Amino acid sequence: MRVAKRIAALTGEGAFEIAEAARKLEAAGRHIVHLELGQPDFPTPPQIVEAGVRALRDGHVRYAPPAGLPTLRAAVADHVRGRGASTAPGNVVVTPGGKSAIFSTLLALIEEGTEVLLPDIGFSAYEAVTRFAGGVPRFYQLDPARAFSLSAEEIEAACTPRTRVLVLNHPHNPTGSALRHDELERVAELAQKRDLVVVSDEIYAGLQYDGRFASIQGLSGMAERTAIVDGFSKSYAMTGWRLGYAVLPAWMVDPVVRIATNSFSCTATFVQHAGIAALTGSQQCVTDMRSEYAARARLVTDSLNAIPGLSCTAPRGAIYAFPNVRRLLDRTGGTAAQLAHDLLHDQGVACLAGTAFGAAGENHLRISFANSRENVALGIERIKQLAAAIPAAAA
């Protein structure tokens, strides 16, 4: 008995693997500071919870249309128009989480041998789904010397006649970088020149600290070649609700709906009612969380940069810092994965090796500050203690 070979492409996700290892240590009595998961420590705002509970009590527990409730699709369309996108309710497909939006969208675009441009460093699901669908990843780099910005010229150099899709993510996981308008314009020009479809992962759009996120979909000529994938997990602290969406050009809607129909049928109806409340109600909860994350980002960046052997670029959005630990690794002779292992088992700090996000992540750690300031400060103090214990003579 054996499973299909393509399953090998679906690797695990580093954050969940580290979280499971941390839980086992906690079960054995260890105190662990959790800086591994991108899971907001805030509760879901009460008006959203109440809408979900009310929907359950009102009997909204039956099938919904595969593309989602019309009211939610309209709310999503209004929401993304606020970031400059041009769309209509009929272009929205609701999914059970942002990952389902990524999976369904890429599956609709990739054929055997289709080349897909992916960021290295980047979210591991992009590569996993690309390979699962029979595609061929081609990687472009993010320049740490320029705050992890991308180069349209380097992206173009990675293109071949078989390249069809470009995956873009900003604000970026794991580095926290965010694209400037001129960078988006250059990528848009490239996409049109090379006839690329852009899959724009905008899950952290609401958490760009300056509040000025703009979608590439809204630039001239991009509405018909951009698929936005997004969800409620980060900006509305709804990770366990599993609610996401794709905003698609008209020619992609039917294929993605067919994938939805044949995989998950529909997204839970009462959860969609909670999503309607999230988008149509006051956005003060998002503003407050974004402000707190920005404050934590400053705390984390300053604290990490004060540790000898570490350097950290200030994130501009999302909920992560991505410090460079190369000087520490030069002293240990080890890898980022070994350092993350030592932090967990010796210091009780759960964080990720940068290589969980691609080969270019070597020499880095990902620190999630989706935790209280007190816990984040404690975790960084423990990182400092481990760094101080590494003898310089090991260089």
Main β-sheet, in a few words?
A: 8 strands, mixed
Low-confidence stretches: none
CATH top level assignment of the largest domain: Alpha Beta
**Helical amount among residues, as a percent range?**
40-55%
Shape: globular
What is the strand content? 5-15%
- What is the overall pLDDT average? 96
What is the radius of gyration computed over CA atoms, rounded to a whole number of angstroms? 21 Å
Please give the count of helices.
13
Number of domains: 2
- The run of helices and strands is HEHHEHEHEEHEHEEEHHHEHHEEEH
The N- to C-terminal Cα distance equals 50 Å
Structural category: alpha/beta
Strand order of the largest sheet: 2-9-8-7-6-3-4-5
Describe what this molecule looks like in 3D.
The N and C termini lie far apart (50 Å). The protein is an alpha/beta fold. The strands form 3 sheets. Strands 2-9-8-7-6-3-4-5 form an 8-stranded mixed beta sheet, with helices on both faces. Strands 10-13-12 form a 3-stranded antiparallel beta sheet. The protein has a two-stranded parallel sheet with strand order 1-11. The protein has 2 domains: 149 residues, Aspartate Aminotransferase, domain 1; 233 residues, Aspartate Aminotransferase, domain 2 (3-Layer(aba) Sandwich), CATH 3.40.640. The radius of gyration is 21 Å and the shape is globular. Helix 2 packs antiparallel against helix 9, helix 10 packs parallel to helix 13 and helix 12 crosses helix 13.
Keywords:
alpha/beta; Aspartate Aminotransferase, domain 1; Aspartate Aminotransferase, domain 2; 2 domains; 8-stranded mixed β-sheet; 3-stranded antiparallel β-sheet; 14% strand; globular
